[in-house]
């Protein structure tokens, strides 16, 4: 793979926080945003506003919650986390149209984009699974 092929593939598989915000404003019904982070609830109590919380370790049991007619955007912690990439691969294999939000929630918060507090979320296992 040459550099051009790499960057074309990367742009097809990812979306920046700014591009996601712009796209969501233009076509609000086009996207389905999923927070796929694993780990203790108290650590992931802040999530991107309007994201659907579906930890990676629950994915296969909850596929019925993910619409096939929308573009799925997945995110995890940061650029060092590969959980979103793992989930994107599984969803692509299941026939979904998927992109990873670059930089995860860390990039989102760095840009001061809207977040929600999910402190009252139900308990899930505390292991990361990254």
From TrEMBL:
Q: Which InterPro entries match?
A: GlpE_sulfurtransferase (IPR050229), Rhodanese-like_dom (IPR001763), Rhodanese-like_dom_sf (IPR036873)
Pfam families for this protein: Rhodanese (PF00581)
Which SUPFAM superfamilies does the record cross-reference, listed alphabetically?
Rhodanese/Cell cycle control phosphatase
Indicate the segments forming the Rhodanese domain, all copies: 27-117
Say which species the protein is native to.
Ureibacillus sinduriensis BLB-1 = JCM 15800
- Reading the lineage from the top rank, the first entry is Bacteria
* UniProt-recorded name of the protein: ArsR family transcriptional regulator
